[in-house]
Amino acid sequence: MNILIKNVDILPVDGKHDQVFNSNIYIVDDKIDYIGDNIEGKEVHRVIDGKNKLALPGLVNAHTHLGMSLLRNYTDDVPLQTWLEEKIWPIEAKMTAEDIYWGSLLSMVEMIKSGTTAFCDMYDFMGEVGRGVEEAGIRGVLTRGMVEDPNNPDKKLNEARNLYKNWHGKADGRIKVMIAPHAIYTTSSEFLLKTMDMAREFDTGLHIHLSETKIEVEDSYKAHGKSPVKYLEDLGFFDIHTIAAHCVHLDDEDINILYRHGVYPVNNPTSNLKLASGFAPIDKMLKKGIPVALGTDGPSSNNNLDMFEEINLASILNKGVNLDAVSVSALEAIEMATINGAKALGWDKEIGSIEVGKKADIILLDLDKPHFYPRHNLVSAISYSAHGSDVDTVMVDGKIIMENREIKTLDVELIKYMTEKLAKDLIRR
Q1: Global pTM?
Q2: Is the Cα dihedral 296, 302, 303, 307 positive or negative?
Q3: What average pLDDT score do residues 36-49 get?
Q4: pLDDT at residue 322 is higher than 90
Q5: N or C: which terminus of the chain carries fewer CB neighbours within 10 A?
């Protein structure tokens, strides 16, 4: 289908134009064919009125745990290690494939409603997440999170292998699979080397939690005599495309290592604040030339998946921490949630900006709201004023999956019913 988005303002995030006013986006099938004023003679099957709308690239949530939506508000206000070891891991051990399927669908509803069109997920029963991606029409990188089991070290590796074979490239290319050892404190060096071998075998990337807490860094120095970043470098881990979630506690040497190896750190500001993990040195990394991406973490540690909240926090938090009003600009925060996220997921040639030849993964925001007036600067408006609820229309691969805030691909009421039922059942198991 050929779609024309007419008379729309655009934040292309293309490195050339900050904002474009009252223009047109012409889409042929799944790609952007033309951007500009001359639309005469173009065959159009559907016109979308862009008046009082702003077109943005679909947002990219570069680190999350979608199935954890069943655990939203289940346990809060406890330290990270207590949260994980005493609360989350015991109940996760009871979760079934059905739980993950419906919980992931709930998260996809929330992401679509707030403008996220691509994500990188780390969890269990990832084939169920793949089913959800097919049905929702969204785009996802699936990674089976692996905490090493000394009694059966190959079980999760085999699950990751089967995930790649069964799902990589599926859903018309909207699904990728990467390999995901959970963290250095839940896996041995031997296990990490096996995950690296698998990533090389499949020519895919790695996804890991890295330097999230002070305790993780302190324990790494005790066990290995070096930081988690240096430990992974010495293993050769970063010779492979790496998505590194959190990267909160880094020194200058760590930052240089990440830059040297082209690692993609993912900032998760809300989760890091809520779990008191600390403040990632985002400004230092961006100034070094590292394309830091943005994520929500899971809906149990955030507790939502609204990337506009993360954009806002990524900018204002660093200004406060660094006592510098120009630290992490509005545009840099938007880039973190779009083109930088696309780079982390290995999709930047196809998504992450509104450019001719790229996939039509586009969201439209309704600007006809009080908090967008007066419209002095749309870049500032997105970073400092916008909410996920401002998203009116969502398009992935040129297909409209939400319009006038109505999701076209999923039965939202059924998903809400099933997740409420399953979550209560889970607590009683």
Answers
A1: 0.97
A2: negative
A3: 94
A4: yes
A5: C
